């Protein structure tokens, strides 16, 4: 692994650092800074990495200086957007973290229905600005999730079947490359790079801003949230798999197996009860939505039915209280599934009933619609034909349970692997190391092209803390 310093303590004094700090307008946080421990926290509490330096950038020139400083001093680089990735690649041990969390400006062009979003923005930042104009960007469903990591990996929103993935709404991106150049990638400029960042993750450079196309959504939307007892899981899953065969693109829905959170928004007598939740959003007129989502509310007798017309901004924050930053130890694995026949439905429910901690959830997202109308070769993402994305999101509060919960997740995933082509969504995946088979299974025919583009733009694998596509010389 060439000349990148990984495990030794980096000498962070002397002229190189002085010169860097003279040019850097953001903040440089070191191990002895009072805020260091808070600043290195990520969403996943299990990640406990201790970088030598966190370079919190204020603008594009800071990002360029940080990239040049890291390259010239052979430092291991992590890039942080929203810090939500479960794999914890936004931190490292003893290297430099190029942190964009202060670069969060969002500018909306209501006439052209587009937004320019800085590389450290969260979806809360984007939703707040775009909804002021009755517009929305196809992005994450938990508001503190970062725009950058989510978009570069694909991006599944509450209106994904209507508008496609986040990458399908991307017009272009301003990026800093490994050699320190700032470039724009779009259909017109650096087309190969633009193709690669739509699904290829953080492999190719640091995105300092994105240009997105926006959709007319809200200010109010019909949202279904039917909470059924887990005892009904088999019936509900069977119903839902059929229901999703015949719905319009406006309906995007999930089937989630979980337990009622110990939170004031739920009656105390329901806390920790195992549940199966059908949730869905209708991306269109609320009255039509009420009709389209009604069947989800009638599958069995719900414990609670929270379905209603909500402000879109409220829907986007609905799950925030249960998924707070740095609270849950988390290990996630996922798979795209072509279909879920009845025998597999039964097996999923059996497995789900063994969920090791009440905070854990197993979610199945319905896909297709606009997502699968984009050909596999059109963006790096790869095959889009799957009907479902199964995500085993194991989460717990006691670190003593780490090993058992990781093993349980792997066992479940290994069993489900036999029912899929092995394509994973890297944004819901804790295992990033040793992923070469996973990369090939996931990118399919696009993998070789990704290697070419990686070799062209990042021949030294400077950006390696990600679902890493290795440049040709390193394979
Ligand atoms: C609670 C929760 C809810 C989620 N909900 C959704 C959802 O609704 N839909 C969905 O599709 N996914 C969702 N995800 C998954 C999410 O897409 C990934 O966690 C994603 O990586 C988060 O992006 P981030 O910027 O916050 O991540 P970070 O941890 O900051 O970054 C992850 C990786 O992205 C790259 N990266 C980050 N910023 C940049 C940048 N500016 N330029 C280049 N590369 C960069 C780096 O390789 C980095 O290691 C959710 C995750 C969590 C924890």
Provide an overview of this structure.
- It contains 14 helices and 19 strands.
- The protein folds into three domains: 15-99, Uridine Diphospho-n-acetylenolpyruvylglucosamine Reductase, domain 2 (2-Layer Sandwich); 106-217, Uridine Diphospho-n-acetylenolpyruvylglucosamine Reductase, domain 3 (2-Layer Sandwich); 220-428, Vanillyl-alcohol Oxidase, Chain A, domain 3 (3-Layer(aba) Sandwich).
- The strands form four sheets. Strands 12, 13, 14, 15, 16, 17, 18 and 19 form an eight-stranded antiparallel sheet that branches. Strands 5-6-10-8-9 form a five-stranded antiparallel sheet. Strands 1-2-4-3 form a four-stranded mixed sheet, with helices on one face.
- By secondary structure, the protein is of the alpha+beta class.
- The mean pLDDT is 95.
- Helix 1 packs antiparallel against helix 3 and helix 8 (233-243) packs across helix 11 (342-352).
- Strand 8 (170-176) and strand 9 form a beta hairpin.
- The structure holds flavin-adenine dinucleotide.
Helix and strand arrangement:
Blueprint: H1 15-23, E1 27-30, H2 36-39, E2 53-56, H3 60-72, E3 77-80, E4 96-99, E5 106-109, E6 114-118, H4 123-131, E7 135-136, H5 147-153, H6 160-163, E8 170-176, E9 182-186, H7 191-197, E10 206-213, E11 215-216, E12 220-229, H8 233-243, E13 251-259, E14 274-282, H9 286-293, E15 304-305, E16 308-311, H10 312-315, E17 329-337, H11 342-352, E18 361-366, E19 388-396, H12 402-417, H13 436-443, H14 447-457
Parallel strand pairs: 2-4, 3-4
Antiparallel strand pairs: 1-2, 5-6, 6-10, 7-11, 8-9, 8-10, 12-14, 12-15, 12-16, 13-14, 13-18, 17-19, 18-19
Helix pairs in contact: 1-3, 8-11
The structure holds flavin-adenine dinucleotide.
């Amino acid at each position: 692994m060439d000349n990148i310093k990984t495990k030794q303590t980096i000498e962070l004094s002397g002229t190189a650092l002085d010169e860097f700090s003279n040019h850097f307008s953001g903040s440089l946080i070191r191990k002895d800074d009072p805020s260091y421990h808070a600043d290195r926290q990520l969403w996943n509490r299990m990640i406990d990495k201790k970088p030598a330096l966190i370079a919190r950038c204020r603008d594009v020139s800071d990002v360029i200086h940080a990239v040049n400083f890291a390259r010239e001093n052979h430092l291991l680089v992590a890039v942080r957007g929203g810090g939500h990735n479960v794999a914890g690649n936004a931190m490292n041990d003893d290297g430099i973290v190029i942190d964009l969390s202060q670069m969060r400006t969002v500018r909306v062009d209501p006439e052209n229905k587009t937004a320019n979003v800085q590389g450290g923005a969260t979806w809360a930042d984007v939703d707040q600005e775009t909804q002021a104009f009755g517009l929305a960007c196809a992005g994450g469903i938990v508001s503190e999730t970062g725009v950058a990591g989510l978009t570069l990996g694909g991006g599944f929103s509450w209106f994904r079947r209507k508008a496609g993935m986040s990458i399908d709404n991307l017009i272009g991106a301003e990026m800093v490359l490994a050699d320190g150049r700032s470039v724009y990638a779009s259909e017109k400029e650096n087309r190969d790079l633009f193709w690669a960042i739509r699904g290829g993750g953080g492999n190719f450079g640091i995105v300092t801003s994105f240009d997105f196309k926006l959709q007319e959504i809200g200010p109010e939307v019909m949202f279904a949230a039917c909470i059924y007892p887990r005892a009904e899981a088999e019936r509900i899953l069977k119903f839902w798999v059929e229901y999703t065969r015949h719905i319009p693109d406006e309906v995007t829905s999930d089937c989630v197996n979980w337990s009622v959170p110990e939170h004031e928004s739920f009656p105390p007598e329901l806390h920790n009860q195992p549940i199966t939740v059908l949730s869905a959003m209708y991306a269109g007129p609320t009255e039509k939505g009420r009709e389209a989502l009604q069947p989800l509310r009638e599958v069995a007798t719900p414990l609670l039915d929270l379905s209603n017309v909500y402000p879109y901004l409220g829907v986007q924050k609905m799950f925030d209280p249960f998924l707070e930053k740095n609270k849950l130890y988390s290990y996630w694995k996922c798979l795209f599934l072509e279909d879920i026949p009845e025998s597999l439905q039964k097996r999923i429910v059996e497995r789900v009933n063994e969920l090791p901690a009440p905070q854990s959830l197993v979610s199945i997202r319905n896909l297709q619609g606009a997502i699968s109308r984009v050909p596999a070769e059109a963006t790096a993402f790869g095959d889009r034909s799957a009907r479902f994305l199964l995500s085993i999101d194991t989460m717990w509060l006691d670190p003593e349970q780490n090993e058992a919960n990781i093993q349980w997740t792997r066992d479940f995933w290994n069993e489900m692997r036999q029912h899929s082509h092995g394509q994973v969504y890297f944004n819901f995946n804790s295992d990033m190391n040793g992923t070469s088979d996973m990369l090939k299974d996931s990118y399919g025919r696009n993998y070789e092209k990704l290697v070419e583009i990686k070799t062209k733009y990042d021949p030294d694998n400077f950006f390696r803390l990600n679902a890493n596509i290795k440049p040709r010389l390193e394979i």
